Known about the structure:
This protein is mainly beta. Helices cover 10% and strands 53% of the residues. The chain has helices at 216-231, 233-239; strands at residues 2-11, 17-25, 28-32, 37-42, 52-59, 64-69, 73-75, 85-93, 96-99, 104-106, 111-120, 125-134, 143-152, 155-164, 179-186, 193-195, 198-203, 206-213.
Amino acid sequence: MRTLVEVVARPGPGGRTVLPVVRASGQLAVRRTGPTTVHLVATAFGPLGGDDAEIRLVVEEGARLSVRTVAAAVVLPARGESPASVQRVLAEVAGELDLQPEPTVVTAGAQHRALLHAVLADGARLTATEQVQLGRTGEEPGRWTGTTRVERAGLPVLHTTVGLGPGAPAWLPPVAPRAYASTVHLGAAGTREVGDDAVRLPLVDGWVATAWGDRLIPTLTRLAALDRVTHDPALLEDAR
């Protein structure tokens, strides 16, 4: 199934954000749920192997947009030899974008590829999270590949690809995490910080933090600890 979502955020009167374009087709619907927030709602089961989803986001200067999902995405294999499902998020940001979907669960036999490509103007702010669990309880893991590319004013800030699950080159037991979480933030400086199975690395005017483990909830707890260091001034001073 082919899915296309388009959202445009534009500054309006009195400092408000207006959304002149909010539309979707295919496997997702999009609903405005707050002054600057939209939620993506699944209208079909999946994604299934071979599904292709593209989410286009434009945030103009002076506007804010928060994107959420109402539930986790459960990736399932198609019958027979299952091709990968694909989701691409393409963002043009001159204002502020906060992208925090619910987790992606990749079931046994399924393959999923996720891409975030964000192009930022000078002064733009971005927060983007990724949460992945390979396999449900008592189930073998599926395979997930995630690529994040962020550019600011025409220059690359971050370009990374992570592959997890059977067949991924770096996924070699016993170092084979089934849970992965990551946050990229541009718009505020961050320091280097290392935790148990978690790390935060500084970027130009930002940072990227990742955590990994066997289950997602403890992994998210480790990631949140690094984020707390970033936003608590006293802890940030200690980290320095």
